[in-house]
Amino acid sequence: MNIKFRLTAMQFLQFFIWGTWLISLGGYMGSSLHFEGGQIGAIFATMGIAALFMPGLTGIIADKWVNAERLYGILHLIGAGALLYASTSTSYTHMYWAMLLNMLAYMPTLSLANTVSYNALEKYHLDLVKDFPPIRVWGTIGFICAMWTVDLTGFKTGPAQLYVAATAAALLGLYAFTLPPCPPERNENKTILSAFGLDALVLFKQKKMAIFFLFSMLLGAALQITNTYGDLFLRSFASIPEYADSFGVKHSVILLSVSQMSETLFILAIPFFLKHFGIKRVMLISMFAWVFRFGLFGLGNPGDGLWMLILSMIVYGMAFDFFNVSGSLFTELEAHSSIRASAQGLFFMMTNGFGAFIGGYASGAVVDAFSVYGEGGVLISREWTPIWLIFAAYALVIGILFAWVFRYKHTPEK
User: What residue spans define the domains of the chain?
Assistant: First the structure.
């Protein structure tokens, strides 16, 4: 079978698993299981915990002892078991530990999927730069397909979304063992510090790098907020008669999937923006795009304000992609060649590790501050507008401070 097709199937399933629950689980936990906002935020913060050390740890294992494709398969099988456990969990404690185990297994597969893909393409003498992007884009398509699947089937409101995710994870786990072998290289020169991105800590001695990584963490706190609470927010309009039958309420996950569609388009626009505006301005565009992302959520509704919600979904692609790509590029340009891989690991750790962890708990505290709960944690009322506007104000302050304190002149020729 064509290796490109096989890798495409792998990438599709890799992100299909994530898409089945990432956007809709918050709504299910809030509406059906009656978890508080802080509890939902804590469960989503497990992504940050896993991102802190699991990619580095599994990288060491794949480099020294176990074939990458086998480790990849084993992790997905563990994730499938965790997702099945989560599907039976109705208490916060059980759901938290189930999703923590799932994230510990899933997060490192994101990098392992790329490792397996690069290895296979090289074995078949294909061009990584030319052939990998068209394969990787099917991951985003898989994520969108998963969102539409759980929405159109009605699985978004119950544990069935986790059954679908577990089935896909088990399928991918078994499929991984059929992929081309990717044996460990046993690179003895790669230290534990390097694997975790910690030998790049020397970059903190440079003022501009220290400022950049600090703001990476602060912005990283905002990256998953709408994924955590977006579906719960849209479904809250079901209690208002004039919105109860609207498209945005009935098919909230499909509406949210416009965000992922926007991602694919803005990725293609990044070279143009980098060339004409430079890295710092592209980062600033991302930060102020988050202001609009949150602000439009706060002011929109599924009725006459639907256009605001749709615009917010479109802006998401710019907000999410522009900082991740330009930040990664800035790190690549500024780090010495001997620590570039570690520097990228540090950038990932600051945004998706510390940032996601802080954002999960902080956003949960904000949501709970504007929520009224009754006995047993049953939600009585919640004011979403001030919640989203606080998040918008947070992004605005970050953008203003970044523009003021971060000094960097981008030279496209470099």
Answer: 1-177, 198-414
User: What is the CATH architecture assignment of 1-177?
Assistant: Up-down Bundle (1.20)
pLDDT per residue over 222-248, tens digit each?
988 998 999 999 999 999 999 999 999
Q: What is the 3-state secondary structure (H, E, C) of the chain?
A: CCHHHHHHHHHHHHHHHHHCCCCCHHHHHHHCCCCCHHHHHHHHCHHHHHHHHHHHHHHHHHHHCCCHHHHHHHHHHHHHHHHHHHHCCCCHHHHHHHHHHHHHHHHHHHHHHHHHHHHHHHHCCCCHHHHHHHHHHHHHHHHHHHHHHHHHCCHHHCCHHHHHHHHHHHHHHHHHCCCCCCCCCCCCCCCHHHHCCHHHHHHHHCHHHHHHHHHHHHHHCCCCHHHHHHHHHHHHHHHCCCCCCCHHHHCHHHHHHHHHHHHHHHHHHHHHHHHHHHHHHHHHHHHHHHHHHHHHHHHCCCCCCHHHHHHHHHHHHHHHHHHHHHHHHHHHHHCCHHHHHHHHHHHHHHHHHHHHHHHHHHHHHHHHHCEEECHHHCEEEECHHHHHHHHHHHHHHHHHHHHHHCCCCCCCCC
Contacts of 355 (CB under 8 A, 6+ apart): 48, 216, 217, 218, 219, 220, 221, 223
**Rounded CA separation 46/36 (Å):** 16
Burial of 241-255, coded b for 16+ CB within 10 Å and e otherwise, reads: eebeebebbbbbbbb
User: Is it true that 1-177 and 198-414 share their CATH fold?
Assistant: yes
Does 308 score more than 80 pLDDT? yes
Kindly indicate the confidence band of residue 53, based on its pLDDT and cuts at 50, 70 and 90.
confident
In sequence order, which residues have a C-beta less than 8 Å from that of residue 411 and are 6 or more positions away?
Answer: none
pTM over 0.70: yes
Confidence at residue 96, expressed as pLDDT on a 0 to 100 scale: 98
Residue 228 to residue 277: CA distance in whole angstroms:
32
* pLDDT of 294 above 90: yes
Q: The domain 198-414: what is its CATH number? A: 1.20.1250.20
